[in-house]
Design brief:
With 326 residues, this protein is α+β, with helices and mostly antiparallel strands. Helix content is 18%, strand content 35%. The protein has eight helices and 24 strands. Strands 3, 4, 5, 6 and 7 form a five-stranded antiparallel beta sheet that branches. It is elongated, with a radius of gyration of 28 Å. The relative contact order is 0.06.
Length: 326
């Protein structure tokens, strides 16, 4: 057993073992020893099955216990080791191991009320992370660009914890998020994570209910105020089907989210002047099919109501914007 508990002893020397055979003179320096003891020592981590050795930009020592294989790793140039328990170690190897960055910041630790995280750093200084919302049962990876955006949105305490790796979906990529209350949210990107937009739980639910990227495309903006003069109307822009711009909107005092799209969006922002900045204000409902007797030449129109009025538009035809009025 290691003699690290005794004052003045800075290194642990192993002489013999019984797990998978004899282990002779395995040496643990102070940084590895401290990580080993902090993780629970032999009872939790098990026994070493390798000497300390280099793995490109990290130094590593392998361990084995009844729970499985694990490792303590250290970025070259650092003194402290970071322990990766079996499932974290398996995920780390699955994402490319040291090529994804070396663990630092004391291995697995908490961030927020229910998230666990392992910080990673690459040789170029870029950082990434492994994260879990269920105490390490399932673990997901945020590459550097996604990780930076995740932190900029407030990270785990604000937007929840990833419950997927970066996954492809209808021409772009998504990272699914789970909030403390169990609700879902997401981050989305069409350029490999260089530009990432966050959809909070109500917005994400509305977006999926409307058909997601197949119907609206990927976000073109963050969730933002309509303008500085209309700060209580918030909006996220989308390219829309066939390139027709659309947006999901909400007024602060309401819990409802509404889509304004296609020719109605063109009418709302064009003919009416300035959308929510105009006399129309914010939408108070979704578009619906509408017929008015004085429009004797038309069988059916589309209409959408707003706080200060309404917009109508002729039925859309594929590939044509059509005309509209307010």
């Amino acid at each position: 057993t290691p003699h690290s508990a005794k004052p003045g002893i800075t290194n642990a020397l192993w002489n013999g073992g019984t797990m998978t055979g004899d282990i002779d003179n395995l040496f643990m320096d102070n940084g590895f020893k401290n990580a080993y003891l902090n993780a629970g020592g032999r009872n939790n981590v098990g026994i070493p099955v390798s000497d300390i050795h280099d793995w490109n930009n990290v130094t590593i020592m392998d361990f084995r216990s009844s729970a499985g294989d694990s490792a303590i790793l250290r970025l070259k140039g650092n003194t402290d080791g970071s322990y990766l328990p079996p499932k974290w170690w398996e995920k780390y190897k699955a994402i490319g191991g040291e090529s994804a960055g070396g663990p630092y910041n004391n291995g697995v630790h908490s961030w927020g009320e229910f998230s666990k995280i392992v910080d990673l750093k690459k040789p170029d200084g870029k950082t990434a992370a492994l994260m879990s919302a269920d105490n390490g049962t399932t673990i997901y990876y945020l590459p550097p660009d996604w990780w930076e955006k995740f932190k900029s949105f407030g990270g785990a305490p604000t937007i929840g914890c990833p419950v997927s790796d970066v996954r492809k979906w209808e021409g772009g990529e998504v990272v699914d998020l789970k909030m403390k209350d169990g609700s879902a949210a997401a981050m989305m990107s069409t350029d490999g994570g260089k530009t990432v937009y966050y959809l909070h739980k109500e917005l994400w639910a509305k977006y999926k209910a409307l058909g997601g990227p197949a119907a609206l495309g990927y976000p073109k903006s963050d969730w933002h105020a309509w303008s500085t003069s209309v700060p209580k109307v918030r909006i996220m822009d989308f390219p829309g089907k066939s390139g027709y711009t659309c947006a999901i909107m909400k007024e602060d005092s309401s819990s409802n989210y509404y889509l304004v799209k296609g020719t109605l969006w063109k009418a709302y922002t064009g003919t009416a002047g300035n959308g929510a900045s105009s006399y129309l204000g914010h939408p108070t409902g979704e578009e619906y099919k509408w017929k008015d007797g004085w429009l004797w030449w038309a069988k059916e129109y589309y209409r959408q109501n707003f706080k200060g009025g309404w917009c109508w538009a002729r039925p859309r035809s594929k590939g044509s914007c059509g005309s509209s009025s307010c």
